[in-house]
Amino acid sequence: HCVNTDEDKTSSPIRFFSFAVCSIQRSCLQHCLYKIVTMDKKEPEGLKIKREIGLIGGIALISGTMIGSGIFMSPQFVLSYVGSPGASLLIWTISGIVSMLAALSYTELGTIIPESGGDFIYILRIYGPFPAFFAAYTMVLVLEPFAAAALSIGIAEYAAAPFYMDCSPPTVVVKCAAAFSLFLVAIINALNVRLAIRIQVIFLVAKVLALTTIVVGGLVKLSQSTDMIVENLKVENSFTGTQFSLSTFGMAFSQGLWSYSGWCSLSYVTEELKRPEVNLPRAVVIAISLVTSLYLLVNVSYLTVMTPRELMSSTAVAVTWGNKVLGSWGWIMSLAAALSAFGSLNGMFFSGSRVCFVAAREGHMVTPDILSMAHVHRLTPSPALIFITTVSLIVLIPGDFKSIINYFSFTAWFFYGATLSGMIYLKIKKPELPRPYNVPIIIPVLALIAAVFVVLGPIIDSPQIEYLYVTLFILSGVIVYIPFIHYKMCPEFLNLLTMFLQLFLEVAPAEKQL
Question: Which spans are transmembrane here (predicted)?
């Protein structure tokens, strides 16, 4: 009666809401709530998030997410693990190649399964709901928040560096600045999809200019080469002091891959990409090629300006480089690094919130429906953005950059490996599936081998109790899955909370974009 008649439209929304709660079931109530929010006299059409991302936006999303604080903070960690400049450059090169192989594999999956959600939706369609829940559970509560927290810490450290030239900035200053950056990015992504993509493009241009400045500065320094610089870059000396072990290479590899994280970000938003069968592979190849080339040149530039010992002892490599090359203008590098990390955080929120949104849409989140809803006017998944922001702030409180990266890489590449093995299964068992984009099977196989090494290498060579904690946390998802997902148990207060938040946030259920 409430859905099909218009007699109560002139009544107050509160009276209408009360009547609906008493007389209809929850699915009908959501329909009525949508009518209250939109105040539309006609039957509401299905709410869908629009396809707003073109080729330029796709390139900006991938490369803009990849180029973050990693290239400004991870070089000293990579070098300290492997012990030599040559081995460090080799790690950066292999990390770029592995990222390209994995991204090309995901591109084929994205054309076979043209849905948003990345690893979660691929695992769901290939393996089923049980393993997919673990992917959603870990991504939403570990991977995305930890990555966002690490990026926000990078922003804060570089933004504060010019004000604390002779010492490290206080922890409370770093944490407060990091929290502010999380809030700001969440607001931007909640306001408008086009605004978020435009900011991503603008910040990508700024990042490329900043990294180009470092490259050119290194070339100028190399042209004025001293004996020290020549010794650093000589092939016969570049591998002196290399530390050979699975643990050291595994940890260095994790640091390198962290700087390339974001290569799969476009697969999280496939439903918002225009002509995904065309733009997805083009964006992946262009973006990762650009980032890999810049990363290698930037690392060479660092080594032309600093000795390996100076680089390893630096807490902010880009700032140290700026002070040596730009002198009194060295603070520009701090600003560039902070802006770079901010753009990466924007891309992380844009793509990461879609994982939460799609997982809730598929019934894999404990909250009944609120996280699968989008704003009725702005068409952004604002409840998912609010949830990701909240968890990221919680993670931010005790976290530090180095440990966050190690655990992020361990858990992320576990699910990357699961997705890649699923793709290999589809290529062997279901070759008849339509594939607008196809890659040789050797590409996902090589990427899978790299994923296995990243996950198992450090554990076998140097086991730490923290890896057990992470594994137990992932497996603890069973406690949540059985009652709340499999049997769909839902406390009544969650339904009431969903109804309240739907009205308060002006959101409604969003349909899948086909």
Answer: 53-74, 86-107, 172-191, 197-220, 283-305, 325-345, 379-398, 404-426, 438-460, 466-486
The residues facing 508 across adjacent strands are 374
Model pTM?
0.85
- Rounded to whole angstroms, how far apart are CA atoms 327 and 324? 6
| Average pLDDT of the residues in 25-39 | 47
| 182 within 8 A of 392, measured Cβ to Cβ | yes
Instruction: Note the pLDDT of residue 98.
Output: 95
Rounded CA separation 217/206 (Å)? 16
Cα separation, 338 vs 477, whole angstroms: 35
Residue 381's domain comprises 55-509
pLDDT of 307-333, one tens digit each? Answer: 888 888 876 787 788 888 888 787 888
In angstroms, the CA 79 to CA 82 distance is: 5
Is-contact 264 119, C-beta < 8 A? yes
**Does residue 425 fall inside a structural domain?**
yes
Establish if 28 belongs to a structural domain: no
Give the three-state DSSP class for 55: helix
Domain of 261: which CATH number?
1.20.1740.10
Residue 296: which of 20, 75, 128, 48 has the closest Cα?
Answer: 75
Residue 26 lies in a domain: no
Which range has the worst mean pLDDT, 134-148, 185-199, 225-239, 391-405? 225-239
The strand ranges marked E within 355-396 are 373-375
Structure tokens at 111: 């054309």
Instruction: Give the position of tokens 């990078």.
Output: 154
The answer as to whether 3 is a domain residue is no
